[in-house]
Specification:
Strand 3 and strand 4 form a beta hairpin. 29% of the residues lie in helices and 25% in strands. The model has no long low-confidence stretch (mean pLDDT 92). It has 247 residues and is an alpha/beta fold. It has 2 domains: 152 residues, Rossmann fold; 83 residues, Hypothetical Protein, Haloacid Dehalogenase-like Hydrolase, Chain: A, domain 2. The chain is globular and about 55 Å long. Helix 1 runs parallel beside helix 8. The protein starts with a strand and ends with a helix.
Length: 247
């Protein structure tokens, strides 16, 4: 079958976890050489300040999914096209849970981390708790996911994979919801699309595509669901995918 679409994660799929730029020129060149009729879409948990510089480097011509589905942005201008934020009440409840702890938080509007005591309560697209230890992570996930219309998940912490970063967003802020919106926009069918990822939150991506590809360094649960496994991020497995299916 000829595939028309490619949807891919960013961290540990095309770049190292938490990297602020793409150091691999072969990846940049490979994406730049994609045929114009291929619809390539980034789908990442990163918020805009961290996602857009990577997306821009890839010369993507179609919209991208960021903040784990809370936003869709124009990949060229960075303009927000779709937004599913947390409400003020949801943010207040999240902060109450965080209050006894001394972790740093990141909000969607700013690339800078903030201590909880300096966080201004406001509606925001997402909140990320940085570098939580495993015991606290399990507690946080249970508490956040018990809040009304709130969804939280964890992944390896940027700069310290022993600990976790916890991403908290609206229950409707999921990759598959945003992907379905882009399917309508670009007249795509799931069976025409390849998805490439590495993490637990990419299960939503896998459920939205016709052919599921995991990089070799992916989470074991994602590897179980993959139709195909390609070389790890460190070996530029995404290039293998593009050369095999889109060249």
């Amino acid at each position: 079958m000829k595939y028309r679409g490619l949807i891919f994660d960013i961290d540990e799929t095309i770049i190292p976890n938490g990297a602020l730029s793409i150091q691999s020129k072969p990846i940049i060149d490979t994406f730049a050489s994609l045929p114009k009729d291929v619809i390539a879409i980034a789908a990442t948990g990163r918020m805009k300040p961290y996602a857009f510089p990577i997306i821009s480097s890839l010369s993507l011509m179609h919209d991208s999914v960021i903040a784990n589905g809370a936003q869709i942005i124009d990949s060229i201008s960075g303009q927000t096209i779709y937004n599913q934020p947390l409400s003020l009440d949801q943010v207040q409840n999240i902060l109450k849970i965080c209050k006894p702890y001394n972790y740093k938080l990141v909000i969607s509007q700013s690339p800078k981390t903030k201590h909880l005591k300096s966080y201004k309560t406001e509606s925001t697209t997402a909140v990320v708790i940085r570098n939580a230890i495993n015991k606290d992570t399990q507690y946080f996930l249970k508490k956040f996911n018990s809040l009304k219309n709130v969804h939280a998940y964890s992944g390896p912490a940027w700069g310290n994979p022993v600990n976790c970063d916890i991403s908290i967003g609206h229950i409707k802020a999921k990759k598959h919801v945003a992907i379905e919106l882009l399917y309508k926009k670009y007249n795509l069918k799931p069976e025409e699309v390849i998805g490439v990822g590495d993490g637990i939150n990419d299960i939503e991506l896998f459920n939205s595509v016709g052919h599921k590809i995991a990089v070799a360094n992916a989470n074991p649960k994602l590897l179980e669901k993959a139709d195909e496994v390609v070389p790890a991020q460190q070996e530029n497995g995404i290039i293998t995918v593009i050369n095999k299916y889109f060249k």
